[in-house]
Each structure stands twice: as C-alpha cells, then as structure tokens.
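Minimal example, chain plus adenosine monophosphate.
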Amino acid sequence: MTHKLIVVRDLARLRRQVAQYRKAGEAVALVPTMGALHDGHLSLVRAARRKAKRIIVSIFVNPTQFAPTEDFKSYPRTFEADIAALREVGADVVWNPPVEVMYPRDFVTRIVLEGPATAGLEDASRPHFFGGVTTIVCKLLLQCLPDVAIFGEKDYQQLKVVAQMAKDLNIPSRIVGAPTVREKDGLAMSSRNAYLSDQERALAPLLHQVLRDCAARIGAGERAAGVLAKGRKTIARGGFVLDYLELRNAETLAPATTDAGALRLLVAAKLGKTRLIDNIAVRRK
Ligand code: AMP
C-alpha cells in the first residue's frame, strides 16, 4: 500500500495537523526543500524517519535567497514528480505554502547574522543569501514546530548558520546534519546539476576529486597553503571559474589554524553558467 501523503497549502490546516500529531504523542521531523527533489533530498527524509514518527517536507522556492541576477525564475520545478517520490519514501505532509503566506505584502522583518554567516565563503559572492535562508527557515520552524529538522551537509555553511540561528533564537527544534549524497562519479547531487550541458557534466566531478585529493594530503600532514594553491590551479585548468577553495574550522568556519579541532574543506566554482558547491571533512592521520 502506498503511504498516505497530505499536501497542505494553508497555515491553519498545517497547525491543526501538527497539533494532532502532538496530541497523539508523535514526534515530528521537518525537512525543508525547494523541490526538484533528488536522492540527496530523499536521504534527508529517510534520516528524518529514523528520528520521528511524522515527517513534514516543505517545498517552497524562496525568493528572498535569490539575488535579482540569480535563477529564481528558471529554478527547476517538478512538483508532481516530487510528490510521487515523497509518497514512496514515506513522508506524511508536504507543506507547500503560497508565496503570500510566507511573505504577505506588509512583511518587513529580516534576520541579521554574524559568525558562520559572515565567514567569507558563500556570503562573499551571495551577500543576500543567508538572510533569506534564515528568514524562511525560521518561519518554517515556527510554523511546523518540529522536534527535529534535517539539513544536508552538502550546504555546509548553511547547516552551521541555521544551527547557530536556532540556538541564538531559542527555537526548540534540534538541527541535525545529514551526509552528502553523490552520483557514482562523486559529483554531489544538486537540483542545479540539471543546468549542466553534457560536456560540463563530464567535467563536473573534478571538484570532488580535488577536494578528496587535498583533504588526503592535508590529513597526511602536508602544508595546507601549498596543497590549496595546487588544488585551485587544478580546478581552474579543469574549465571552472573558481570562487573559493578554503580550509576552515569545521564548527566556526573561521580560517583553519594548525591547532587541534575538526577541519572542513569547502569549494565553490562556476562551470559555464552553473555554480556548484561541495565540501568534505579533513581527517588528520
Ligand atoms: P535545496 O532544495 O537545494 O534547498 O536543498 C534542501 C535540503 O537538501 C538542504 O538541506 C540541502 O543541504 C539538502 N541537500 C541538497 N543536496 C543534497 C545532497 N546531494 N545530499 C544531501 N543533502 C542534500
């Protein structure tokens, strides 16, 4: 039997549904998405199922996290296929609010961020981005009031920014990260991979190869500055326009020092018109 899945577009209806789950003593998990779902998103739903009885997946392409020059209008929208996939994977509710519910005409509030949101990574080339993300995630958390919310490590800075925001604002939901799901050749799954031409798609796995190579060398004790300089050259020679390749403290995202503490290697680069991001942990031997 296929799973019963409810699509909700009305906030009062959503709140009634969540209240019903709570009354029955059922834990609730939220998986926020912008739709165009792939196996990476579905892995978050599976992770949610291990943590809560009821799963809400939000699908909302959030206009405030796109700059006017970015791809809000052309962002892939595959609602029917998304619903079929979510039914298959056992989600309970799809929260698909109209834009007027999220941003009524008189909406004026913004979240102002420091810390991991100003680490000089995504924020350097997308200054509007984390304000938009945290505004919408804060609203989604307050609308759904989940026990736990799952975010992909694929967007590592976003995961850290959201966790900090939830902590700072005392939002009573646990923010949990889930590992990046990749294609067989290592390319991190992303809704934006659909933009790549065949030729670009063949080049794209280089980003992950460079991350792995650099992480192994730094982990083995090679000097990070030299390793990163070589990695940056390899990415540029591979046909990308590099945005950043950076070694950071895995928690604060501050530039990595030689001190102890977990490390993360993060990359962003453009291939033609498509901007790709990826990151991996650096394990010291
Ligand atoms: P998006 O719809 O791209 O905004 O992503 C929604 C959620 O899915 C975010 O928490 C992302 O980090 C996560 N996500 C996107 N791609 C992947 C992936 N390849 N593996 C795991 N999680 C992912």
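Residues 6-178 form a domain with the Rossmann fold fold (CATH 3.40.50.620). The CA atoms of residues 156 and 279 lie 7 Å apart.
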